[in-house]
Amino acid sequence: MLKKKTAIGLSVVAAILFVPFVILVSQSSQQKEPSPSAQPIQPETIKPNEDKESEVTRQANLSKIKQLEQQKELISQRLLGRQQKISSLELKKTQLETELGDQDRRVKSFVENHKLEVACRDQARISFDQNNRYSEDVKNQAALATSLCVGVYFSSEEFRNKVNFVIDELNKADISAKNFKDQIDSIQAQIAAENEVLAQEKTEFDRLASAIQQSQPGLTQSNQDEPQVKINRPRLGVKIADLDPELRQQINQNKASNISIDVDRGVLVTEVEKNSAAADAGLQVGDVILLVDGQSVTKVDEVIEKINQSQVGSELALVIRRNQQNLKTVASFK
Q1: Which of 318, 314, 315, 321 is closest to 303 using CA atoms?
Q2: What pLDDT sits at residue 232?
Q3: Alpha helices in 114-244 (DSSP H)
Q4: CB atoms near residue 130 (< 10 Å)
Q5: Kind and range of the H or E element at 317?
Q6: What is the reported pLDDT for 217?
Q7: Does any domain span residue 39?
Q8: Torsion of CA 192, 193, 197, 199, to 10 degrees
Q9: Is 40 among the domain residues?
Q10: Are the beta carbons of 62 and 229 closer than 8 angstroms?
């Protein structure tokens, strides 16, 4: 009986102890279960560093502008050289046209002084090429003096010799005029070709200038107070032209220039800017540049290429021809 009561007592005690445990477990379970409306915690989104990206973009634009400026400066140097070359060609053409004009005037005077021989050449039975440049001058004089061609004298051997002399001189003048014309036409073709390249280079220059302008808005507001991109390029400060035998002859024949050149090839200095590297080096108008940094030069482009290969602060060794002497000098790019 006692055992039975004891067993019942233990059961009651166990039941009493078990109920709080169930309640505790139930409450604990309720706390761990998420409510249906609860959302899972998302990891925090990392925002990009806008200032850093802006600085990278700005630096990229600056680098792009610098490259474009360098290309633009190179094209600018080419344009300058091209324009100087065209000026040199035009000078040659003008000189040739002047010489041809002088010859035409001399021939006209010659025909007038020999109008009798010209007018009476038919009586002397001597032909004259109608394609000769001066055939019109001959016709005009013949028309004025035909009435003089009377008598046996005009068919004599002596008169025939005089007519032959005149016709020979006119034929020589015609050949000379054709040579002048061929040279003029050749130079004109060169000028046209150079102008075509010049137009292409100007188009490229304008394209680069436009690209630089379009890149400017890519710079941030903070960059407005910073100095603009500036490319320092060395400048010699001269105008130059290709020297050849024809140009040398033209200059030497111009007594007013007080310049005498004794070489046929090189790069002729036609102008020196004040306070330039060339002026500091002692270059003068009429000097002929023979060597640049030890390399022989005969073209304007070759001198420009050497300058473009230099840097601000560097020096360029020159050998020039002046007064029948080779002189050495150094141009410093400050």
Answers
A1: 318
A2: 62
A3: 115-119, 135-145, 157-215
A4: 9
A5: strand 315-322
A6: 62
A7: no
A8: 20
A9: no
A10: yes
Burial, 18: exposed, middle or buried (Cβ in 10 Å; 0-12, 13-18, 19+)?
Answer: exposed
The answer to whether residues 253 and 307 belong to one domain is: yes
Report pLDDT digits (tens) over 231-287.
567 888 888 888 888 888 888 887 777 888 999 999 999 889 999 999 999 999 999
Question: What digits encode the pLDDT tens for the residues 91-130?
Answer: 888 889 999 999 999 999 999 998 888 888 877 788 888 8
Q: Which residues span the domain enclosing 182?
A: 60-218
Instruction: Please state, in angstroms and rounded to a whole number, the distance separating the CA atoms of residues 183 and 268.
Output: 21
Give the CA distances from residue 258 to residues 156, 261, 283, 318, 321, in Å, rounded to whole numbers and listed in that order. Answer: 52, 10, 16, 23, 15
185 & 301 share domain:
no
What tens digit of pLDDT does each residue of 42-98 get?
A: 444 444 555 556 667 777 778 788 888 888 888 887 888 888 888 888 888 888 999
CA–CA dist 246, 267 (Å, integer): 14
For 222, the token pair is 């903070």
Query: In angstroms, how far apart are the furthest CA atoms of the chain?
Result: 193
Q: What are residue 330's phi and psi, to 5 degrees?
A: -130, 130
Q: Nearest CA to 136 among 101, 166, 107?
A: 107
Question: Taking a C-beta distance cutoff of 8 angstroms, is the pair 187, 92 a contact?
Answer: yes
CATH label of the domain that carries residue 312:
2.30.42.10
Burial category of 258 from C-beta neighbours within 10 Å (exposed 0-12, middle 13-18, buried 19 and up): exposed
Shared-domain flag, residues 144 and 199:
yes
